[in-house]
Amino acid sequence: MSKDFRRDLNREFDSISGSPSPALSARVRVALAENRPSRTGPFWMAGLAAGLIAAIVVGVLVVASFNRHQTSVLPGTAPTPSAAPSASPSASPTASPSASPSPVATPTSNLPAFVCGVNTSLSPQQAPLSAYVSDVRTGTHAGYDRITITFTDGLPGSISLKPQNSATFASGGGQGGNVTIAGQAGILVTMSSADEHTSYTGPTDLKTGYAVLAEARQIQDFEGYVQWALGLQSPACYRAFTLANPTRLVIDIQSS
Amino acid sequence: MMSAVMEQRPSAMQRAMEGDADSFAMLIDPLLNPAYRLAAVMLSDRMAAEDAVQEASVKAWRNLRQLRGDESSLRAWFLSIVANECRMTRRRRWWSVVKSAEVESERRSDAPSQEALTDLRRALARLGPDERLPLVLYFYLDLPLDEVARTLRVSQSAAKSRIYRAARRLRSDLTLEEVS
Fold first, then answer.
1. Which domains, and CATH codes, for chain A?
2. Can you say how many angstroms the Cα of residue A136 is from the centroid of all Cα atoms in its chain?
3. B 115-154 near A (Cβ less than 8 A)
4. Dihedral sign from CA coordinates of A229, A233, A234, A236
5. Residue B65 covered by a domain
6. Which of A11, A20, A223 sits opposite B36 (nearest CB)?
7. Statement: the pTM of the whole predicted model exceeds 0.80
8. Per-residue pLDDT tens for A140-150?
């Protein structure tokens, strides 16, 4: 490592941080004296805590159940103005399961229509320096399978979806080689200015066995690019949109 | 027969484990400066950094029994708590997304050329707090790689990769071998 680089970098860090206040040490001592470590409390406290946790779990299950039955439009939300995908004819020779790039289904809700065999790109207007993936979930619903990617600190700089006629994807991160996942077709989801290694500790390979979405696997998380490969049982139409609170990307793959 | 074993005074760590706040304060006192520097760089806000260090100290004190290992593990454990506290601070204060203005602070007479420094400063401002973290630990606080890894709670190879990745965003011609 160049000594100049280290020296210059440390100089910058010095200018950012300065020195701590001389009172910091005393301030911490006072705070410590006022905050004793937690000890084992009386049994009634344990009972109270257990009751509270049980109530929360029941509440969460009730809400989750309610959501599951209402997922054609996510509860209390509608697609953000920037969420409508701008479908354009695919440039990829492998991405044309359908001859027509026009939407083939008009949803009964205000969600965007499904599109077939075309690339989709979403460009949030105000992207953060890095959108941190915090959760990835899949689910199956009447008429479609869904994958939801949740972010903290806003949406990625750009999101693109590219359908393809096989479930073999080029491995990302400059590693070379291909990755083959379950299914006969696929969709490659690419997000820029995104980061999945900082806040996300969940699985990076979700084998679902759903009617159409067979598997979802992260194939890149490198230098601000995150890619997920979606393996489909057969070429399928899809829709992609973003929602707020929490900030998330939703991809629905039509199953019937 | 006289016992050859002399009674030993309990260590500061033992006393802290038994609830002695002064002993714990004594243990973390040398760590407050690096903790503050880490927090200040992650938050780009000196006052918020001191608040984060204080809060992290209290959390460390309350959860001291969760510390695995001996006193030598304390630094990495404590710094990881400070880093977590910084992340929480940022989440609480959404408006604090990279306050790079404070980077424009005092200049020194032995500073390198204005142009070179400006490039580095701009590149640094573009890094997210979690990208700055491995750089701070490795270059600024001069922690050995294994301690950087323990602070980040990742493997050594993953820690090295993070340092390299972040450093390359500051200097594109960097090689992996230079980060070792």
1. 3-60 (no CATH), 80-254 (2.60.40.3500)
2. 5
3. 116-117, 120-121, 124, 126-128, 130-131, 135-136, 139-140
4. negative
5. yes
6. A20
7. no
8. 888 899 999 99
